[in-house]
Backbone:
């Protein structure tokens, strides 16, 4: 084989990084493949001043790339649902292999895309869709293929992790840190996907599918954001020996599969508690290997481009050996994918951190404890603070043992009805990651 030619759709941050890596590391890439990888064409609606395209065929119509007979691999880096979905399906229809970093596309439309690729005998590779430069998809799908995965938990959104890190280290308010994250380019002008857990949910459903052999089911993921986390909760968590992280959690249980994204107290002694700033980390527990932790840059031009180019190299190698998609997209043969039920959040069992504002008078704590006891919830730890001089309200912080979500929410409703409770109870889930 003389060379493998790629066509890149998009010329934003990740695409510019991909061009940079392909050029800068061309010698090493060629040595690994046994032949060069060339950029045959770029489809982009506008130029990027950071990318020299003077020697590359550039088209303003991205669909030109997928019908170009010279292109062996189409690299989709435009993001979003459309026209990305139409572009990828057209590329597959034309017998092109596809590499993408589009987590939203894979999470929502992956089942359809993978089925189309299987019919055409082409590969769809998507390592860069989750955790940027961390090769977590290959680790689970290939490196841990001898294991039955019990659970995984991850910090898989760098924006949220940056915000919570600043709140913990500097005592800053959420809104203040969010503005800085936007100024630094970590968060979009509309930060909803990052701070409300949607971006992490896209990534979690992909990880869960390759871990457990279940179809992609984005609509079944429970997602809760970090906008309601306050500095006082961050401080109380630290006092109790915990750190608040925005986690994506997938766990296989006898009742079904948990898929949930939410703020979570984790023990400060855990390695994941020390993954700070915009960094990502994923912990995976296999029944043979035990717990493994993958940590690194979860976003950015070059880290994400590293994963994109790794996929290009894998596909190129398979072309050179005439391999017919040796690894199923989700790591399990399509006909073996499980129909395990995704548990509604009400049926999930976890521990809880509860913060209450109570009137400083005798008997209040006993009434709260009785409500929890009646719901079958035991208390693991409790902190009662002194009230301020100008108030008769005191903060009461309770750590519970594990209980069903529906039991805890029912107990919270009863607690909030007490005339000695002011305002709403603040609940945050707790995970030991053992």
Residues:
């Amino acid at each position: 084989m003389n060379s493998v030619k790629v066509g890149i759709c998009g010329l934003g941050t990740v695409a510019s990084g991909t061009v940079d890596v392909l050029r800068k590391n061309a010698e090493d890439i060629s040595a690994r493949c046994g032949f060069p990888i060339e950029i045959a064409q770029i489809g982009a609606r506008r130029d990027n001043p950071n990318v020299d395209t003077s020697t590359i065929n550039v088209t303003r119509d991205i669909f030109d790339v997928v019908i170009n007979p010279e292109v062996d691999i189409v690299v989709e880096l435009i993001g979003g649902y459309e026209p990305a979905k139409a572009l990828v399906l057209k590329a597959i229809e034309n017998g092109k292999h596809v590499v993408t970093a589009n987590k939203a596309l894979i999470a929502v439309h992956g089942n359809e895309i993978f089925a189309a690729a299987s019919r055409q005998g082409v590969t769809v590779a998507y390592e860069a869709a989750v955790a940027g430069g961390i090769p977590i998809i290959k680790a689970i799908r290939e490196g841990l293929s001898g294991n039955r995965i019990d659970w995984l938990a991850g910090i898989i959104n760098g924006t949220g992790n940056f915000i919570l890190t600043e709140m913990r280290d500097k005592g800053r308010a959420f809104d203040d840190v969010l503005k800085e994250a936007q100024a630094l380019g970590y968060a979009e002008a509309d930060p909803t996907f990052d701070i409300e857990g949607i971006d992490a949910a896209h990534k979690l459903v992909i990880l869960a599918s390759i871990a457990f052999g279940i179809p992609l089911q984005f609509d079944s993921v429970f997602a809760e954001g970090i906008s309601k986390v306050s500095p006082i909760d961050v401080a109380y968590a630290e006092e109790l020996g915990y750190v608040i992280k925005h986690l994506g959690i997938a766990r296989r249980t006898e009742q079904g599969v948990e898929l949930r994204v939410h703020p979570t107290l984790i023990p400060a002694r855990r390695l994941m508690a020390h993954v700070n700033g915009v960094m990502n980390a994923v912990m995976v527990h296999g029944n043979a290997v035990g717990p493994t932790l993958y940590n690194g840059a979860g976003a950015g031009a070059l880290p994400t481009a590293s994963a994109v180019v790794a996929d290009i190299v894998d596909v190129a190698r398979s072309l050179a050996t005439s391999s017919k998609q040796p690894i199923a997209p989700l790591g399990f043969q399509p006909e073996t994918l499980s129909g395990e039920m995704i548990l509604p959040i009400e049926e999930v069992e976890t521990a809880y951190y509860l913060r209450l504002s109570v009137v400083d008078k005798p008997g209040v704590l006993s009434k709260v404890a009785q409500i929890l006891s009646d719901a079958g919830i035991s208390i693991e730890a409790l902190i009662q603070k002194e009230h301020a001089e100008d108030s008769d309200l005191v903060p009461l912080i309770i750590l519970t043992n594990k209980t069903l979500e529906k039991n805890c929410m029912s107990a919270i409703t009863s607690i909030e009805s007490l005339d000695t409770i002011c305002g709403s109870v603040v609940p945050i889930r707790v995970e030991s990651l053992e």
The chain has three domains: 4-133+301-336, 136-297, 349-430.
